[in-house]
Amino acid sequence: MSAMNIEPKFLTLPEIAPGTPLISVVVPVHNEAANIPPLIAAISEALAGIEHEIVYVDDGSTDASPKILAEIAARLPSLVRVRHRNSCGQSAAVITGVKTARGVFIATLDGDGQNDPADIPAMLDGALTAEAQGPRPVLIAGHRVTRKDSEAKRWGSRIANAVRGYLLRDGTPDTGCGLKLFRRAAFLELPHFDHIHRFLPALFIRAGGRVVSVPVRHHQRTHGASHYGTWDRLKVGIIDLFGVAWLQRRWKLPHIDPTP
């Protein structure tokens, strides 16, 4: 679905004040210098005609990433850049990006160019369609149906998704996909911790929300190598998994009666 097809629906949202972006695209990066220019160009093309901003969070890169981001920001007003002095991890970068962003909606995607920004307009449309069914917060989660990763990485993800799905009952086939979309205000209400980006479906459900998984494209990495690892995070991931399960048990969602 093209941006021009969905723009009129978005412009009817009453809470969007003049000058406020409809969507902020948050991109965490660590040493992804070669992938930055083509990905920013792809995001700008995908969201042409939609009020947006692009928020890059440089998570303590030691390559040319800061220099490249500064050069692009000088000629692209929609680019906002934030830098962590030291690498704090992908989730910390996502949280920093969401807090910095001004958009009503947030789309997150990985900085390696494997997610396709062209999927974002359809995800925006899907979020509004889901919101029309009720006031509950909505998370649109990308599902990489055809992954362009190594066999070991795909198997690791299958195992991790199966274990997580069994324990958390989040009904999401691919929580590791970096391409997700949600309202900024809903995200800011969630508990924040390291590796939160892998548990957003469970946390949205805990908050009374709903999760809609949609198929998205996935491309092979063309430059560099992964800097955030797979589930060599495994030991840490298991600890986080039980932590989120604890959070689920330690919260009862209040249902507010209307005032008579």
From TrEMBL:
InterPro entries: Glyco_trans_2-like (IPR001173), Glycosyltransferase_2 (IPR050256), Nucleotide-diphossugar_trans (IPR029044)
Sample GO molecular function, one term: glycosyltransferase activity
Phylogenetic classification of the source organism: Bacteria, Pseudomonadati, Pseudomonadota, Alphaproteobacteria, Acetobacterales
Annotated CDD domains: DPM_DPG-synthase_like (cd04179)
Domain Glycosyltransferase 2-like, first and last residues per copy: 24-187
Family annotation (Pfam families): Glycos_transf_2
Keyword Transmembrane helix: yes
Encoding gene per record: dpm1
Protein name per Swiss-Prot or TrEMBL: Dolichol-phosphate mannosyltransferase
Keyword vocabulary terms for this entry: Cell membrane, Glycosyltransferase, Lipopolysaccharide biosynthesis, Membrane, Transferase, Transmembrane, Transmembrane helix
